[in-house]
Amino acid sequence: MFSCREASQRMSRALDEPLTLIERVSLRAHLMMCDGCRNFSRRLTVLRTLARRSSETHPDGRQ
Amino acid sequence: MTQPADLPAESSLDIAKLFEEHRRDLQRYAQQHLRDADLAEDAVQETFVAALRHPNFAGRSEVRTWLVAILKHKIVDIVRRRARIESVETSVPGAEEHEDLSELLFNPAGRWIEPPSDWGMPEQALQSKQLWAVFEECRRRMPQQQALVFSMREVMEMSTGEICEVLEITASNCHTTLYRARLRLQDCMNRNGFGGIRK
Which site among B100, B118, B124 would you substitute to test the A interface, given the most A Cβ atoms closer than 10 Å to its Cβ? Predict the structure, then answer.
C-alpha cells in the first residue's frame, strides 16, 4: 500500500505520461479508499483547465 | 529570406492594424511565460517578423491562433537561450528544498496533514474575475523554474519530452518539477479562498 504522497506524485505524472497497468491499478485502489487524494486528483484537473483557458481568456474575463 | 515586398500597399495597412489588434494579447501571453517585459516584447516582435515573411497569412481565418503558435516557438527559443545562461548562474545549493512543499503538506508517514477538500468547479466559476486573479497571482508566486515548466506543459501544451529537450533536464527532473508546481499552485489557490470564489 503506498502513501498519499506517492499517490499524489503518481497522479501528477499521469497527466504527463501513461502509467503502467500496475501503477494505474494500485493508484485506483488507493483513490477508492482516500477522499483527500480523490479531491487532489480533481484539483489537478481544475488546474489544467484553468491553465489551458488562461491562454484563450484574459484574467478579467475578456475574450 | 522571403520578402513581404510582393504584398500590395493597402494590405500592409491591414496587416499593421491586425498586428495592433493582437499585440497586447501576444505581449501578455509572452510575459506570462517569460516574466520579463523586454524579452516578451522581443518574442512578439520576432513573431510579427516571422508572420510577415509568410506570404499568405492575411487570408488565414484563425490569425490569432496562428500568431500564438509562432509566438510559442519564439518563447521556446528565448527560454532555451536563457536556460543556458541561468544553469550556470543560479545553481545555489539548498535552493531546491524551498521549492518543495511536500514536507509541509505530508506527515513523515506520507499522509496528508490536511487532506484536500473538494473544490468542485461549476462552469460559472470560470467567469469569476476573482478566480482568475487568484490563479494569476499564485502563478506569479511560483519559483521561476516551476512556473516555466508548468506553463510550457499546461499552457503551451508541450510534451514532457519536448520540455526536457528545450531545458536540457532529465525526464525525472521534469516530472518532479511539474509535481512541485502543481502541489504549490493548488495549495496557494486553496489558501486564497478558492472554495469561497464559487458562486
Answer: B118
* Chain B residue whose CA is closest to A49: B154
Structural domain count of chain A: 1
Q: Residue B83: its pLDDT value, please?
A: 67
Rounded to two decimals, what is the model's pTM?
A: 0.75
Instruction: Give the SS3 label for residue B198.
Output: coil
Residue A62 in any domain: the answer is no
Q: What domain range is A16 assigned to?
A: 4-57
For residue A63, tell me if it sits in a domain.
no
Question: CA–CA distance from A5 to each of A31, A56, B55 (Å)?
Answer: 12, 33, 53
Taking Cα atoms as reference points, which of B23, B22, B29 lies closest to residue B151? B29
Distance, CA of B98 to CA of B104 (rounded, Å): 10
Q: Which residues of B touch A3 (CB under 8 A)?
A: 106, 109-111
User: Taking CB atoms and an 8 Å limit, are B121 and A49 in contact across chains?
Assistant: yes
R_g of chain B computed on alpha carbons? 20
Q: What are B106's strand-pairing partners?
A: B112
Q: Pick A59's closest partner by Cβ from B133, B157, B178.
A: B133
Q: Is B70 part of the contact surface with chain A (CB cutoff 8 Å)? A: no
In a domain? residue A35? yes
Span B156-177, average pLDDT: 91
Task: State the Cα–Cα distance between residues B164 and A13, nearest whole angstrom.
Answer: 14
